[in-house]
Specification:
Helix 1 links the parallel strand 1 and strand 2. Helices cover 28% and strands 26% of the residues.
């Protein structure tokens, strides 16, 4: 006889990645104490496995050790953050990029961005009290996602206004990369070499209002010029200053200074208005947290 369910709410599903087996076992045991309803659907011993398991299981949550062989937790998070559409999700299936919790033995990685809710962290070995706080934060963020989905489904519209956003995940990942390997701190693009008609033009990055990709090209839009480049969004994400360009869709980066306001369309989707243009840019579900409270 099956045991009765405590709630009709679907269980939160997680992937756990750490190259140390004892650390995985210890974290799994602690999680069972502070979050007994959590379902760990898979475990990975390196970053490459973590990315593949997230793609395969499409969990709500992923725990990533910051330092893993082959592909670090930060690099794995970059790849996971680019999921949410295309080949990563079967047609007709709706899935958001999972919440991310970093696992680290070094508290210098506990940067301010963690406390701002972009992601969370757990120090090794996982202490029950600190892990309980992380669980509380994750549950709150997952509930906010569900609330936003319900509002969109009901067709509630947000009023346009100035964007009051959470810091994008990319900002945190850039900070962590610089801390792990200071010599590899990124030098952000300053110019974009793009095709305008039959000519090649050098466009200052700060003049770009947004980048939007299709299968072959990426459109570069300024106030005066529309141009094309062959570099995909997933590469631009790592080459542009994340404090200036925010990813709002797997195919779209927008200049934060150019955001004019947020509205909802007739289907309940968030749409970003761009200063000086009538065109609006769709915000996918995985990035609605950027404009929470709007």
């Amino acid at each position: 006889m099956n045991s009765p369910q405590h709630s009709d709410t679907p269980r939160v599903r997680a992937v756990l990645a750490d190259d140390e087996r004892l650390m995985r076992e210890q974290l799994r045991a602690r999680l069972s104490e502070v979050w007994p309803d959590l379902e760990i659907v898979a475990e990975a011993k390196n970053g490459l496995e973590a990315v593949e398991l997230v793609r395969q299981h499409r969990p709500d949550l992923v725990f990533l050790d910051i330092r893993m062989p082959g592909l670090t937790g930060v690099d794995a998070a970059r790849q996971i953050a680019q999921m949410g559409g295309g080949d990563d999700v079967p047609e007709g299936e709706d899935w958001q990029v999972p919440e991310i919790v970093f696992i680290t033995a070094y508290d210098q990685y506990a940067v301010e961005a963690f406390e701002q809710g972009v992601a969370d962290y757990v120090l090794k070995p996982a202490e029950r009290e600190r892990l309980a706080l992380t669980v509380q934060r994750i549950k709150k963020r997952l509930a906010m996602r569900d609330g936003a989905d319900s509002a969109a489904a009901a067709g509630h519209e947000d009023e346009a206004g100035d964007a009051k956003a959470a810091a994008p995940l990319q900002q945190l990942l850039h900070k962590l990369s610089a801390q792990i390997n200071p010599a590899s701190a990124p030098k952000y693009l300053q110019w974009i070499q793009a095709t305008v008609g039959q000519a090649i033009q050098m466009i200052p990055v700060e003049d770009v209002l947004f980048f939007i990709s299709d299968e072959k090209y990426t459109r570069v839009q300024t106030a005066r010029v529309e141009a094309l480049i062959r570099k995909p969004i997933k590469e631009l994400v790592d080459e542009l200053d994340p404090t200036l360009f925010w990813q709002v869709h797997r195919s779209t980066l927008v200049n934060a200074r150019a955001i004019d306001g947020i509205t909802r369309d007739f289907r309940g989707r968030q749409m970003v208005g761009v200063k000086g243009l009538s065109e609006k840019l769709e915000v996918s579900r995985s990035y609605t947290h950027l404009f929470k409270g709007m």
